[in-house]
Amino acid sequence: MIFDDNVDRLGTSGQMGYRRKQLNDNYGLQGTAHLSFGRNYNSWMYKIRRSIVSTKLRRLISNMNNIEALDIGSGSGYYVDVWKQLGAKDVVGCDITSIFIKRFRTLYPRANFIEFDLSSNFIPLIKQFDYVTAFDILSYIQEDDKYAKAISNIYNLLKPGGLFIFSENFVQRKSHKNKFQSIRSLSEIQLLLQATGFEILERSPMFYLMNAPVDSDGVMIHRFWNSIKKIASNGETFGSLIGCALYPIELLLISISKESPSTEIMVCRKH
Predict the structure, then answer these.
(1) Cα dist from 13 to 8, 19, 127, 236, 264, whole Å
(2) What is d(CA 27, CA 97) in angstroms, rounded to the nearest whole number?
(3) Nearest residue to 178 (alpha-carbon basis) of 60, 15, 13
């Protein structure tokens, strides 16, 4: 989860305005990432995301040819592209910002992209999907009632037996908020998912060292993270070097760990 520099992709009107300006000024991966870290460090973070998400989707789906997927909060379109490269039959992308919709329709004229607020009472989609993905996005819905509405809408957008795959921090401690995010506890999210009708299948790391350790009180790991931020913020060359150095270590730690102090991925099935 991008913790301290991102803005809402689904939430209130004030934050939505900030979001529009951010994507307009920084369209692409940096516009949906740690702005202060520069493009090079962010590109290494997205390499991690692509590796983890692609591996998980390949493991979960034996035949992509008939898959219909919806990607929530698509931003720069990164995960829509992942779905397409894996061979999904049909992928719909959505975002609350018209900037994404207009620019990505230009890049993928045959694809379907829709502008709407997932936490609202009106969803302009009548079809259901085999898979719904929402990466690094749902914690930006700060209001608990809107978060619950978003989960309910996702449930309704899935076919029976369909899978919901998303990333959050899933902290073991008490839920808390910062300026732009609600960092919800694992227990709170689990209870809401189950009450909505989801069966939780698995949870695994998406990041370990390369993103904020929001689910750890460890002094050393926070010092390490602060050092990463300091180095990456010194310029593109430094961001590239620290990202390149951490990349293989990050993949190794993710592969051998059941949990992480940072962002994780959860997979749920609609009953």
Answers:
(1) 10, 10, 27, 33, 28
(2) 12
(3) 15
Average pLDDT score over residue span 178-191? 92
- Residue 107 structure tokens: 């890049």
Which residue intervals of 37-172 are DSSP H helices?
38-60, 78-86, 98-107, 144-157
Rounded CA gap, 237 and 231, in Å? 10
Query: What's the first-to-final CA gap in the chain, in angstroms?
Result: 27
Query: For 148, what's the count of Cα atoms within 13 Å in the CB-facing half-sphere?
Result: 9
pLDDT (tens digit per residue) in 105-120: 677 766 688 888 999 9
- The CA distance from 158 to 167, in Å, is 17
Phi, psi of 165 (to 5 degrees): -120, 120
The model carries a pTM of 0.87
Report the C-alpha dihedral over residues 193, 163, 129, 82, rounded to 10 degrees: 120
